Each structure stands twice: as C-alpha cells, then as structure tokens.
Amino acid sequence: MAVCPSDGFVDRDMKNIEGYLFHSQEIILNCPLAESRGYEIPCLGMLDSDAWTTLMILAETKEIKILTGDCSSCEDKQAGVVSETILQEIIQLWPNHPQIIREVLPARENSYDSIDKNSTKITGNAGRVSLRQQGRDKLKALFPALEAEEVYPVPRTRQWLAQAIGRNSEKKVPYQALSAKESCTGCEICVKICPQGALNLVPKDGNKLLIYEPLKCVQCGRCVETCGPKALGFDYMSFSSRFLTGKILLIESEPKYCNQCGKQLFYHNETGLCIACASRNPDTISQMSEA
Ligand code: SF4
Ligand code: SF4
Fold first, then answer.
1. Does the reported pTM lie above 0.90?
2. Assuming Cys at both sites, which of 3, 162, 204, 255 could form a disulfide with 186, CB separation 3.0 to 4.6 Å?
C-alpha cells in the first residue's frame, strides 16, 4: 500500500481511520504484531508519503504514537522498510519537523490470533495472513473492472494531506512533485499518457504552457519515463495547500516543426527534421543521433 501510487490496494477501513485521525484527541496506531493499544492498521507499510506528512502535520497539535511488533521477524518486513525510508526522506527535508513517537511493543502470546467475527476487522497473526488473502481476493474482484482508460480517484491519503494542510494556509511541507526543464518541446505525449488527467497543455501566443495538478498526480512516473527529451523529473519542494490543490505552470515551451513536412518535432535537434524526413537522408540521421 505504501508503494502503490493510486490506491490499487487499500484497506477497507481507510474511511474510519480518517475519522480517527482528525477527530481523536491523541492518535495511537498499532500494527497487528504490536500490543493492541490504539487503532489497528494492517502494517506500517500502509503509510505512504502523504500519510506520513499528514501525521506530522497533526502531530503539531496532538500526540501521535506508532506501535509496531518486531518488524525484523515479520514476513512482510520489506513493506515496513519502504515506509520507514519514505519517512526518513521527509524528516531530513523538514527542519524542526513535528515528532511522531514510534515504539516497538510486540504483542503478548495470548493476544495473537484473535478474530472478531462480528466485524471486518481482524487482529493478531491470523489477521496478517488473512489480510494477504483478502488482498488477493480483492484483486480478483477488481480485475474484471480494470480498463486502460480508467481514471483513478485522488488517493485517500492524498485527501488526508489536503485536509490537514488546508487547515493552515501558511503551512508548508516537503512534497515530491513534478518539475520540467527547458528541453520540453510541448509534444503533448505526457498529457496523453497521464492516467490521472494531471497534466494539460494550454496554447498561449504560439507557445504551449504545461500545467500540472499535484492533487491528481499519483506519481506513477509514466510521464517521466515517456518524455523523449527527458524534460520531466520529480523533486522534493516546499508545498503549501495552495500548491497542492491548485494548478502549477511547469514550463512554457515553443513548439518546433519539421522543416520539410511541418509535423511537430518531439525532440529539439539541429537538423530541424522529424525522424521520418531525416530517415530519407542518412547524413541527417547520424547528426540527430549525435545530438
Ligand atoms: S517534451 Fe516531455 S514534458 Fe514536454 S510535452 Fe513532451 S512529453 Fe511532456
Ligand atoms: S507521474 Fe506523470 S503520468 Fe503519473 S499521474 Fe503524475 S503527472 Fe500523470
């Protein structure tokens, strides 16, 4: 859950957790292998960067504790490692960051394998194994509905973050967002490939403005990988609510067109020809590959 950018895997309890986070006076989250002292989450690995940033904003006004079992002996320890790495990145970029208390507090033997049959919530070791099966079942149930053109909703933890940061318009937090370089040709490939509709190209006086909506972006990296001139990348920036929920101008580019056929060029190159026209002249091909 920490690495999936678009809520492909979500805990069905996320809605209830949101209520707990924003309305309780203190927050204690414990994994199934820890002492049951607060609200049980399936694994530390469900906390992605939006969730950690939300918790840190909330930690400015109330105590927050995360209780885990012995992650090193957990079958899913890699999930915890990913989540912990994300947290460390945020901490390093946030001077005087609010403190979240984390404790290793393994559950006692007799508290394992308890299942509340009257609810969907499962606790203890049996809960962990069963959650894996639940994940597989959920994927099976979801698969027939998956379509290439499907647009994912804004992930739940992103909604938490928008809510938390929106409480103070002056608040700024480290946030990983897209940036663009001058090499952008305004070719529109990224706009077409984005599954979220988070990118848009707007014409302006013969140029093109690349507009980005961070709230919608699930940071899947498709646009970064597909951009021919490698104009896109992700960087941590200092973000306020206005940036998170608004529209950002990434770059204004001047489109270039093929000198022969007039088609728009995907790459800036000295020949001024598109690949199709250049392929008719081997000399220009070698010039393009050198460029
Ligand atoms: S050059 Fe890259 S960033 Fe610019 S519009 Fe094309 S794909 Fe997007
Ligand atoms: S990383 Fe790029 S392609 Fe993926 S959601 Fe964000 S803007 Fe769209």
1. no
2. 255
